[in-house]
Design brief:
Low-confidence stretches: 1-6, 443-450
Oligomer: single chain
Largest sheet: 4 strands, antiparallel
Helix content: 55-70%
Distance between the termini: 12 Å
Order of helices and strands: HHHHHEEEEHHHHHHHHH
Number of helices: 14
Shape: globular
Strand content: 5-15%
Number of strands: 4
């Protein structure tokens, strides 16, 4: 029985990542099948968690998940008061991933985080990155890889799919007289594809820094190329900012193997980080403007980030319509609920792709406070100590968290399972690193013993 229990322990990371991939992609065209698989994964972790809680007589709720739960409750209240019950269905979309990770936490708070948890996104990242590169090359050479246009129930629109499971794509300009395509694998949007690739990008970069392995370097280059082919400006900016991030906290601070808590100096560095981020975004727009002049037919360099006069905009109206949002919030300071997340429903008509605006509009000023508190808590108490570590893997996890958080300002909710995973990962890694330091261990992860 003990051997069987250990084998199941090793299966948890694979089942978790299977759930994350199913949730964020459309491999299953039918919504019923997609939802059924996610519910089965939720029930699996739920029953395991109930068993652990029953034995320990204790329920643990991480602070970041508690904040997410409070946000969902606050978002449900306006819908119930106004009898907009469609909001309950929308809230379930955000609540299920939180419940999965709450159940997962009841399991993993008793044991070390298995290394296989981080192996899976690298393997899957190589698969989708190589598929994207091959598809882009094949379509550019006009090879017969197009399968046709299909309606995807999960996204509610039609997409162009390729043969041989190489993924979906969309035309986004031309280069040298040939159509240039934007890759998205089986993600609901190319930007989501680019966001996920931030996982293998920093994990392979960490491996290459630590081992100087040729395989890690080639994998890193392959993933980098796929991120470029996603043509997601949000992913590009998030990647550049996250690459520069460690220098902000290591430049004037001594790197250490012991994960020390945040200091007053770190708070001052964070102020400097804000200016660096603004300069990075302005520099990116300047580069895009130059590239748009050289390659005028590539839409990635201008579409969606310029106004009618061709001027580049720092804030996209399609994700942050300040006039609509502010007028709505002043009328409803405690939020308008999840029913308004659906574009054009009821009296609110604005795109809530921006994660901070989602929390603000759905739950009002309390939601805004919760979002800012959660990010401050995760960044200062967990990300910064990992950034100052000598362990490149610690640094990589903090970079992934920061990049996905920044990407959420363009397209995200901070409630998706891939984002919740990296939040839990930096929390586990920080506490595990502290525990290993006390025990005199140098490695940051401990395999489950037989």
């Amino acid at each position: 029985m003990k051997s069987l229990h250990l084998r199941w322990n090793r299966m948890y990371p694979y089942i978790l990542w299977f759930y994350i991939i199913v949730n964020t992609t459309f491999y299953f065209f039918n919504n019923q099948t997609d939802n059924l698989i996610q519910i089965i994964c939720l029930l699996f972790f739920f029953f395991i968690a109930v068993n652990r809680v029953y034995k320990s007589k204790h329920v643990a709720i991480p602070k970041n998940l508690l904040i997410c739960i409070l946000f969902i409750i606050l978002g449900i209240i306006p819908d119930i008061v106004n009898r907009r019950y469609i909001g309950l269905r929308v809230s379930a979309m955000y609540a299920v991933p939180v419940m999965v990770f709450l159940a997962f936490h009841q399991i993993y708070r008793f044991q070390s985080l298995n290394k296989s948890v981080f192996l899976i996104p690298k393997i899957y990242g190589i698969y989708i990155a190589s598929s994207a590169v091959l598809l882009e090359l094949g379509l550019f050479l006009q090879l017969p890889l197009a399968k046709g246009r299909f309606f995807i129930e999960k996204t509610g629109n039609e997409v162009d799919l390729s043969r041989f499971f190489l993924g979906a794509y969309a035309s986004w300009g031309s280069l040298f007289g040939r159509t240039l395509y934007r890759m998205q694998a089986y993600y609901i949007e190319p930007s989501k594809f680019g966001a996920f690739l931030l996982f293998p990008f920093f994990l392979f970069l960490s491996d290459w820094k630590r081992k100087k392995s040729f395989k890690s370097f080639i994998s890193f280059l392959l993933v980098s190329l796929a991120i470029i082919l996603s043509m997601s400006r949000a992913a590009w900016i998030a990647l550049i900012a996250a690459v520069c991030l460690p220098f902000v906290y290591q430049f004037t601070a001594q790197r250490n193997g012991i994960l020390k808590p945040v200091s007053k100096e770190d708070l001052l560095r964070t102020i400097g980080l804000a200016f660096i981020l603004i300069l990075s975004i302005i520099s990116m727009f300047a580069m895009l403007k130059i590239l748009a002049g050289i390659f005028p037919n590539i839409e990635a360099f201008r579409t969606g980030i310029t106004n009618q006069n061709g001027q580049y905009q720092l804030v996209r109206v399609e994700t942050v319509d300040s006039n609509v949002i502010l007028s709505t919030i002043f009328k409803h300071p405690f939020g308008v609920g999840f029913s308004h997340v659906l574009h054009g429903v009821y009296d609110f008509d604005a795109n809530l792709a921006n994660a901070l605006m989602l929390w603000f509009v759905v739950a009002g000023f309390p939601g805004l406070i919760l979002a800012l508190y959660m990010q401050s808590y995760l960044f200062f108490f967990y990300a910064i100590p990992l950034l100052r570590s000598k362990d490149t893997f610690h640094v990589a996890l903090a970079q992934i968290y920061f990049a996905l958080t920044l990407h959420g300002f363009s397209y995200g909710s901070w409630l998706t399972p891939d984002y919740l995973f990296i939040c839990m990962a930096i929390i586990y890694t920080y506490h595990q690193g502290k525990e290993n330091t006390k025990k005199g261990r140098k490695e940051c992860f401990v395999e489950i013993k037989r």
